[in-house]
């Protein structure tokens, strides 16, 4: 079996577990007043699991295959790809998740966006920093003020 099908099989099992959690375990803990609303906290995970299962099955069954094999990943030549960038981005995502509470949303998100764009090849600091800071502030404002979900904007030791 090709590498893309193995990855699709792994993603299918993850999406099945995620879907089971969204459909059966998340809804059982809802308060009675939440059960009458049209959109529940599990609505988006349910949609994601359905799309993930569908796309994984499409890859497993070979619906996405074209006539030519150009652009396929050759697992015997993984070192020819930009594997270092991918590993650095994954490490940066883990660091972002770990620093989110202690550093605060604005600092960790801005740093993640700047370092992520640097890893991917952008070198214009005068563009990266303002765009990353603006994006972090806009997302924080939308989540905090519009959706009403508390996000600690600053580090925990600043008391906010």
- The secondary-structure class comes to mainly alpha
Please, how many domains?
2
So what's the overall shape? flat
Number of helices: 5
The major beta sheet can be summarized as: none
SS elements, strand count = 0
Mean pLDDT: 85
How helical, in percent, are the residues?
55-70%
Question: Roughly what fraction of the amino acids lie in strands?
Answer: under 5%
Separation, N- and C-terminal Cα atoms: 52 Å
N-to-C order of helices and strands:
HHHHH
Radius of gyration from the alpha-carbon trace, in angstroms: 20 Å
Query: Which residue ranges are poorly predicted, with pLDDT under 50 across at least 5 consecutive positions?
Result: none
Protein name: Putative TTT family transporter small permease component TctB
Domain DUF1468: 6-151
Transmembrane segments: 6-26, 47-63, 83-115, 127-151
Pfam family, one: TctB
Write the layout of secondary structure elements.
Blueprint: H1 3-25, H2 43-61, H3 83-103, H4 105-119, H5 125-146
Helix pairs in contact: 1-2, 3-4, 4-5
Domain DUF1468: 6-151
Transmembrane segments: 6-26, 47-63, 83-115, 127-151
InterPro entries: DUF1468
Question: Mind explaining what this structure looks like?
Answer:
- With 160 residues, this protein is mainly α.
- It has two domains: 1-61; 82-146, no CATH class.
- It contains five helices and no strands.
- The longest helix has 23 residues, at 3-25.
- The radius of gyration is 20 Å and the shape is flat.
- The relative contact order is 0.08.
């Amino acid at each position: 079996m090709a590498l893309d099908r193995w990855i699709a099989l792994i993603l299918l099992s993850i999406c099945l577990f995620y879907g089971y959690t969204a459909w059966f375990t998340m809804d059982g803990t809802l308060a009675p007043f939440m059960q009458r609303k049209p959109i529940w906290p599990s609505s988006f995970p349910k949609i994601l699991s359905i799309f993930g299962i569908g796309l994984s099955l499409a890859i497993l069954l070979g619906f996405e295959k074209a006539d030519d094999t150009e652009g396929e990943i050759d697992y015997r030549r993984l070192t020819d790809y930009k594997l270092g960038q991918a590993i650095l981005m994954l490490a940066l995502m883990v660091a972002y998740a770990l620093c989110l509470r202690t550093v605060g949303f604005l600092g960790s998100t801005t740093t993640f966006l700047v370092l992520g764009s640097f890893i991917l090849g952008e070198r214009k600091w005068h563009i990266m920093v303002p765009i990353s800071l603006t994006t972090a502030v806009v997302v924080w404002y939308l989540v905090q003020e519009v959706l009403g979900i508390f996000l600690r904007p600053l580090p925990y030791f600043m008391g906010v």
